[in-house]
Amino acid sequence: MSEKAPKPTHPHSPFYAHLSRLRFIKRWGLMRNAVEEDVAQHSWEVAVIAHALAVIRRDVLGLAIDPNAVATRALFHDAAEAITGDLPTPVKYSPAMRQATAHLEDQVCREMLELLPAPLQATLRSVMDTNEWPSEEAALIKAADRLTAWLKCKAELRYGNREFEQAAQQIERKIHDTMRPEVRYFLDTFGPAFDLTLDSLMRGD
């Protein structure tokens, strides 16, 4: 006999419908893109690379961390953009806007969590609210976020789009200034393949 599903206490939550709209929110909105990127795609790529960094940390460096928890938090790291949209980096991180942006994102996160049925809120808060993230997990997710942005810039440059030259240089400088052993291992082991064509990847060059 199958278990009877409990009757929802909050049957019409728009929470996941909001998240599904991340696919419509374009990144790099102030720049000409050879290939457009949306927030849903970006979130998946950050989650994959953050998971890889966590696995490297655990299995190569022998340090304690839960790769699955890191990947889950990374999937939700830009969830608030379902409401705010993607704020361009020059705006988001300008001295005048940094604190205001952080406050806005925190407020939107709280409001989105309140859309959930009460029994789900604590679990989703632990993955959406960056204030609740363990520091090492947060650091890996930030590193993965930078890596995906840099790889995007490099891809645009390969397509002949010089619009991303300065962004690539700035992000690469940040990566090296904040270099972690997990990131160094990822770049040395997996980085070169990102410059290969499909034929070269299939041949294993």
From TrEMBL:
Keywords assigned: Hydrolase
Top-rank taxon: Bacteria
GO molecular function: 5'-deoxynucleotidase activity
Annotated GO CC locations: cytoplasm
UniProt domain HD/PDEase: residue ranges: 35-162
EC supergroup of this enzyme: hydrolase
Matches recorded under PANTHER family: 5'-DEOXYNUCLEOTIDASE HDDC2
The name this protein goes by in its record: 5'-deoxynucleotidase
Organism: Aquabacterium lacunae
